[in-house]
Amino acid sequence: MLVERLAQAVNHRPLLVLVVWLMLVAGLKTVAPSWQQIALDGDLDYLPRESPSLPGERLLSAAFPEEQAKSQAVGVVSRGGEPLVAEDRLCAREVSDALRTMEDLPLVDGGDERTQVVGEMMLTGEVPIATMVVARMTNGLMDVDNARLLERIEAKLGELQLAAPEGLDVGLTGSAMIGGDLRLSIEESLASTEVTTVVLVLMCLILIYRAPLLVLVPVATIAVSMSVSYDLVALLADRFGPGDFSWSDFKIFTTSKIFVVVILFGAGTDYCLFLIARYREELSAGVEPQVAPGRALTKVGDALAGSAFTTIIGLSMMIVADYGKFSNSVPTIGICIFVALVACVTFAPALLRLLGPVVFWPSRRPSAEGAAPDDVAAPSDAHAWGWVADAVMRRPVTILAVSAWLAAPCIFVGVGAGVTHDFVADLAQDRTSVRGARQIRAFYGDGAVAPMRVLARLSPDATLPAAADGDEGAEPEPLDLNTNAGRYAIAPLHALLIEQESVADVRSLYLPTGGDPRSRRFLGSDALKSLAASGSPLTAATFVSQVDGYAGKVTQLSLDMAVDPFSLEARDEIPKLRRALEEFSERAEIV
């Protein structure tokens, strides 16, 4: 039997067992990449295939292959509501130029008040009180590199802030910077989780055993299992990741490490407590110290294996989850728990075997002559737990009812807890991107932090309207969005979107500088700027596809939501917006 063989190895060759584990730790450290090097991110990349946004992403990639921007950094320059002077606007241009010229920045393009297509959107009010600069980047919202970008851009803006006119404030936000703050928060949370978990486990073990060497056994076992687990899954992800083989798709994620830490400490401590308790019972029964660790393992080995595999099977139910990060984390968690189990049935008893009864110092070792006086636990502890055991056996229904009554408030609060997708609200209020987001919202509205894009495609039978004096027998010409007729064909869609309560502004081929077509002015400087932008080749290249197969047939529109795009309100408004677009596509030549 496997457990009996392990017991014999532990009793007869404990040093060899420990050396094998230490060699495994050192060997994996040599050949395995670090978790950070191989971990994947990009939450949006693991959405279910049926997610409504994915067809739009595929069409965007096909029709606008040069449109590589997935996020943006936004700088906002203001005086807290006071009008900007010429020097302030010059400082904003310096910020924009600095972003465009920074090295190692995954920049696609940038914009400021000088930008032809959206320049007018960068200023607020007839007398400008704020101006912003935008750097669009290839990084996704949750890319690991966003943390580095945030720190670099923040440092650069800090230098410019020192040279800025007195009283001028330069804020920083945008989806890339919010993602960077999220990445930094996750790293800080992971570090604090590890430290807190270690401290709590040590405190519990010290309170339970009050023996330093006895505390060392589970701590060393957990440390070894964590080291092996981290390196093993990183090595597997490196050698059997997506694309390595036709059948391989092993992935690990940065956020999964938090779950692994908590699970390994919880499970490893639990398994070691069972083993040590049985080891103490064997010594109390008169078993020799050289035999007791193996005997203890044979008695609890099946229970430990049952507990571990129950946990693995239970957590493996995540494999049916639609979200890819949950389903892909199942192998990682399963491997880590299995490694913890193997360490607890080999490394831990081998360590007990080498240390012997001295492990109970400063308490006296348990012996068959009298377990009570020599037990590690104090008599008061034994009496207290005995009283609890007697009470449960005498009045099980009462104890159950009281326990349920005490747990009821927590259950009530937990059931009523809402789910939030508001990344900004979840971050600390002193974070750089959060402060910048407050400025953006104050001057430009909630949606300016992360504009949304809508992709529209002409139906195959869309044709130019027939001329009044045209030849009735002539073949109708297909509609092309690059023409004036195509630009006006987008006007109804632009108008539909801006009518939605959840939409604050729309920029399209028809009105690249934004605004409501119904209140459009045709006289004045603003009208001339809008007309000039509408007829610009740059505008056409920005909003209309120029790629074979899609040229003149696909256009994109940029939306600023009237609510925070990361909020629950925005999530609830998306289905309404989608239904409005579906109804529009049924009666129009553009879908």
Give the tags.
single chain; about 600 residues; alpha+beta; four-stranded antiparallel sheet; three-stranded antiparallel sheet; elongated
Structure, explained:
It is a single chain. Helix content is 57%, strand content 8%. Mean pLDDT is 81; it is low at 370-379. It has 22 helices and 7 strands. The strands form 2 sheets. A 4-stranded antiparallel β-sheet has the order 2-3-1-4. It has a 3-stranded antiparallel β-sheet with strand order 5-7-6, with helices on both faces.
Q: Give the overall silhouette.
A: elongated
Strand order of the largest sheet: 2-3-1-4
SSE pattern: HHHHEHEEHEHHHHHHHHHHHEHHEHHEH
User: Strand share of the residues?
Assistant: 5-15%
Give the N-to-C terminal Cα separation.
67 Å
Number of helices: 22
Largest sheet: 4 strands, antiparallel
Helix proportion of residues, in percent? Answer: 55-70%
Backbone structural class? alpha+beta
What is the overall pLDDT average?
81
Radius of gyration: 32 Å
What is the β-strand count? 7
Report the uncertain regions. 370-379
Instruction: Kindly report the oligomeric state of this protein.
Output: single chain
Topology:
Elements: H1 2-12, H2 14-31, H3 35-38, H4 53-63, E1 71-78, H5 86-101, E2 107-111, E3 130-137, H6 145-163, E4 169-173, H7 175-209, H8 212-239, H9 256-284, H10 292-315, H11 324-327, H12 330-355, H13 371-374, H14 379-394, H15 396-416, H16 423-426, H17 432-444, E5 452-457, H18 484-489, H19 491-499, E6 503-507, H20 525-534, H21 537-543, E7 554-561, H22 568-587
Antiparallel strand pairs: 1-3, 1-4, 2-3, 5-7, 6-7
